[in-house]
Amino acid sequence: MRLRRLGVLFAALLLATLGAGAASAQDSGSVLRVARLADWFNLFHPVEFQTGNQFQWWNTIFDTLVKVDADSKTVVPDLADSWDVSEDGLQYTFHLHQGVTWHDGQPFTANDVAFTVDWFANNSTVDSTGALAPVYKGFLPKWGAIHGVKDVAGTLGGDGSVTPGTGHVAGAKVVDDNTITFTLDAPNSEFLVGLADMANVIVPQHILKDATAADIEKVPFSVGTPGVTVGTGPYKLVSFTPDQELDVQANPDYFKGAPKIDRIVFKLFSDPSLAIAQLESGDLDLAFRVPPAEFERLSTNPDLNVISAPNPGIVRIIMNTDTAPWDKVEVRQAIAYAINKQAIVDQFYKGRAQVLYNHPGFKVYDDINKYAYDPAKAADLLKQGGYNAEPFTIVYDQGFPDASAIMPLIQADLSTAGINAQLAPVDGAAAYIDFMKDRSKWGGAITVGGSEALSPDRSEQYYATTATPDSANSNYTNPEIFKLWDSARAEPDPAKRDELYHQLALILNTDLPMIHLYTPNLVMVSTKKLGGGFKVHLNERETFMNVETWTLGSGS
Questions:
Q1: Which domains are seen in the chain, by residue range?
Q2: Which residues contact 277 (CB under 8 A, 6 or more apart)?
Q3: According to DSSP H, which parts of 185-289 are helical?
Q4: pLDDT score of 2 more than 70
Q5: Is 11's pLDDT higher than 70?
Q6: Could you say which of 45, 179, 350, 409 is the most buried, measured as most Cβ atoms within 10 Å of its Cβ?
Q7: Are strands 392-397 and 444-449 parallel, antiparallel or unpaired?
Q8: Residue 451 and residue 519: Cα distance in Å, rounded?
Q9: Parallel, antiparallel, or unpaired: how do β-strands 80-86 and 91-96 relate?
């Protein structure tokens, strides 16, 4: 079988970078102070990977097989120097960088990669439809595409517990310490680029070999324990105070060269105004997802670089589709017509946002319903759906930027159309998830962020093949959408793939399990001292993928 060799040029560039890194001196005592003004979870294992903050932390500590460049699409080496892809698109062989070690000095090998895949498989289950049901609670890794994952999956008990499966995934074959081959069940156009996501971090077998889904969120590795939470990345964890601060120290033995900044301190803010004050006082060097309303004022500060950039994420309402009356499509469509999305974009964001009509990875096809603001039409649809003034409770994390201004606007629009809208603000991601688990308490839930604009494939993870009584999502289950996603991934012809996505977009746009509102431009602010290879990625949470190349000068 003829193979297409990829990544050779990148491997050569990596060697050159290593030489340059070894020759350049690490900035003595330099400390970069960072904040990403969004929610977070205090966990370090990918089974509980749900936030962009975790993505940025983990980028400093862990590695993946590949990464992406600043365009968030071009695949570049990470733990793999190069890779081969078979002509039929089913087999991927990764050639790992030699001599890599974990932070505790243990050698990294292809067995760690195989273990990471096996752990995912053994601690997942297969649901009643025959679909894989990972125990992962957030963003899903790409390991589920590998042949044989279901064969070694665990079993789900009546109490919701998982009895782990045993054995190795047949499609993940260790060739030698520095080579591993994956065989997929079907061609997958998103597999390689998807491996750059932090859901696919490689974890240490020697530390986690005895951990299972039942205890993984409590073991020392997962809760952020210095010396135990080890990766192969450019920085080592030295301290972690949940909900307050994460401190990492440069890894002098990093295989791409010692980082040029000595320490990074990630600060966690529940109140964005505190972070803004620290940016202005010089006590914070870099901030992501700054409230857009701060753009003009911060732009006048001579010590700061302020960027307003397109956002691959979303602001949307997840609908509780299995609870009356929100289970009626007419009622969901009424809510979409009732909200004046364009007014929010024009008046509040001053045009630095874009209205959304569907998951943003999809094209805006000509036959997509844009649900232009029409309170009279909304009122008519409410009658058709049998709405009887039931409270429409909208839960949201009040820490998301502009929540205090935007949520009353949405509430007022809904009230104008005759919807009894009630706001339910909560503090933090954990409280938000806990609130949603009691599905009798809410009709809609505001969710923010993500990177769905990069590909329609990224939206599938927000749906499940079966509904669960404590789901923190829509519980919209339509077998057709999963067939279309599967077919699109396996379709090599871009035009035919687009038509499959077109069909999928129409279904979601009509049924409205989620009502997409808008995507605000992201505002990022940095000190003018930050330089070197620093560049904000299209998907801003990926920005730390080359953090070892950044520099922090002593002046502007």
A1: 3-257+527-551 (3.90.76.10), 314-520 (3.10.105.10)
A2: none
A3: 191-194, 205-208, 272-281
A4: no
A5: no
A6: 45
A7: parallel
A8: 11
A9: antiparallel
Q: Which of 139, 142, 148 shows the shortest CA–CA distance to 191? A: 142
Q: Considering just the CA atoms, what is the radius of gyration of the chain in Å?
A: 23
- 266, 240 Cβ separation under 8 angstroms: no
Contact 250, 261 (CB under 8 A): yes
Task: Reply yes or no on whether the pLDDT at 54 is more than 60.
Answer: yes
Contacts of 367 (CB under 8 A, 6+ apart): 506
**pLDDT band with cut points at 50, 70 and 90 for residue 555:** low
pLDDT-derived band at 379 (thresholds 50, 70, 90) equals: very high
**How far, in Å, CA of 526 to CA of 288, rounded?**
9
Q: What percent of the chain is predicted at pLDDT more than 90?
A: 72
Read off the tokens for 178: 């520095």
DSSP assignments along 492-548, one per residue: --HHHHHHHHHHHHHHHHHH-SEEEEEEEPEEEEEETTEEET----SSGGGGGGGGG
The reported pTM is 0.78
DSSP 8-state assignment for residue 348: I
* Angle subtended at Cα 446 by Cα 444 and Cα 451, rounded to the nearest 5 degrees: 130
Average pLDDT, the chain: 90
Whole-angstrom distance, CA of residue 466 vs CA of residue 240: 37
- Let me know: does 213 contact 123? Beta carbons within 8 Å: yes
Distances (CA, A) of 429 to 138, 372, 436, 457, 521: 12, 31, 11, 24, 22
380 within 8 A of 323, measured Cβ to Cβ: no
Could you read off the pLDDT of 28-38 as tens digits, one per residue?
589 999 999 88
What is the full DSSP assignment across 384-447? HTT-----EEEEEETTSTTHHHHHHHHHHHHHHTT--EEEEEESSHHHHHHHHHSTTS-SEEEE
484-538 residue pLDDT tens: 999 998 888 899 999 999 999 999 999 999 999 999 888 999 999 999 999 988 8
